Amino acid sequence: MKAVHFGAGNIGRGFVGLLLHEGGYEVVFSDVAAPLVDAINAETSYTVHAVGDGGGDTVVTGFRAVNSQLDPQAVVDELATADVATTAVGPNILRFIAPVIYAGLVARSAELPPLAVMACENAIRATDTLRDEIAALAGAGWPAVAAKAVFANTAVDRIVPGQPEGQHGVDVTVEPFFEWAIEQGPFAGAVPSIPGAHFVDDLTPYIERKLFTVNTGHASTAYFGARAGIERISDALADPEILAAVRSTLEETSAVLIARHGFTAEELADYRATILRRFQNPELPDTVWRVGRQPLRKLSRHERFVGPAADAAERGLSVAALLGTVGAALAFETADDPEAVELQELLRTTEATALVTRVTGIEAGHPLFDGLVAAVTTRQADLA
Ligand SMILES: NC(=O)c1ccc[n+]([C@@H]2O[C@H](COP(=O)([O-])OP(=O)(O)OC[C@H]3O[C@@H](n4cnc5c(N)ncnc54)[C@H](O)[C@@H]3O)[C@@H](O)[C@H]2O)c1
Ligand SMILES: O=P(O)(O)OC[C@@H](O)[C@@H](O)[C@H](O)[C@H](O)CO
């Protein structure tokens, strides 16, 4: 069995590639970073180091890498005979890999079982987004292309930080915890062999619980930490005020998750406690800069802050803590992140009400609008 995985970065090697290997697949990594592709091809094995309580090493073998920028045809050829295609490139990159997957499906024999396509990104229905990009490329030919693939949404959870200096080869340091939930309906019973994953009937509660708890809490910690001049995620949560603010934010998202999906208060309290312990892992070298990356994406309409806050406001639930976190996100400044630079430029040049709608997609008249405008106005006053 063969899997083509797009994006040989942190989660690609440290989680998706590892679980595919454990499922018995030969893994072909596709990436655009030439030094990374070369480094992978220079090794016959790499080790995933899970650090912290319950950690340990796992060795991955049976992989190679192709450079999809230098040799897209090689990726097309691999896809034509693969069983599985996964991605971990970032939600905004999916449209750039859609043409390669489309070409791979065109080249694929209709006699083969369908290619299982699963986007493993931090976004709601990322695989549907990828499928829609491919369908747009196929146009009238879509039914024939669609018949050669199964598209399933997934939720992936494992903290894989930026990698420490001096680590061997393409080894990866990760946290011990992991979860990979995949919707099973599209497979009509023939689910791929991935023992580390679990297949569920309805993915929405899983991906929303993950994005609106793990990722809301993580990004909140990053933005409060960055504003306080703290570098590491675990250090940020050692600050009692930041810990309290993150807890309050997550209590608000939990209230939304209970209303939307019927989780019990107890199970979400347990889930929150677990993820806070994960963030506090002192052996994980994770930074506020990685976790806070791409603040414009994170502040967008269906993402980890505005998604749950908009729903909470519509339901008359509290949004005070979420708005406080948005305020911290608006203060995220680093010259290394183009979205952070663009956000600060927008804050300097754009009137508050226009900025709110442009960045968050929330319009005047929505019950969250005035709170967002107040957060923007406060940040603009600080910048003046
Ligand atoms: N790191 C984590 O803890 C984690 C956990 C769960 C989900 N995710 C999600 O996984 C995705 C990747 O995150 P990451 O932390 O691994 O990022 P990363 O930057 O470490 O890896 C992304 C990789 O994608 C490659 N890439 C970029 N454009 C490409 C293209 N057109 N074709 C092929 N490869 C391309 C990059 O070169 C890089 O190697 C994101 O959506 C992220 O939200 C990350
Ligand atoms: O990858 P992002 O930028 O959407 O979010 C940053 C982190 O919160 C994220 O990568 C987590 O480490 C991961 O989602 C844990 O499963």
Automatic annotation (TrEMBL):
Residues 202-343 form the Mannitol dehydrogenase C-terminal domain. The keyword Secreted does not apply. It catalyses: D-mannitol 1-phosphate + NAD(+) = beta-D-fructose 6-phosphate + NADH + H(+). Its EC number is 1.1.1.17. Keywords: NAD, Oxidoreductase. NAD(+) binds at A3, V4, H5, F6, G7, A8, G9, N10, I11, G12, R13, G14. SUPFAM superfamilies: 6-phosphogluconate dehydrogenase C-terminal domain-like, NAD(P)-binding Rossmann-fold domains. It is an enzyme of class 1 (oxidoreductase). Residues 1-194 form the Mannitol dehydrogenase N-terminal domain. GO terms for cellular component: cytosol. One of its GO terms (molecular function) is mannitol-1-phosphate 5-dehydrogenase activity. GO terms for biological process: mannitol catabolic process. NCBIfam families: PRK02318.2-5. HAMAP family: Mannitol_dehydrog. Belongs to the mannitol dehydrogenase family. This is Mannitol-1-phosphate 5-dehydrogenase. It comes from Microbacterium ginsengisoli. The lineage of its organism: Bacteria, Bacillati, Actinomycetota, Actinomycetes, Micrococcales. The gene is mtlD.
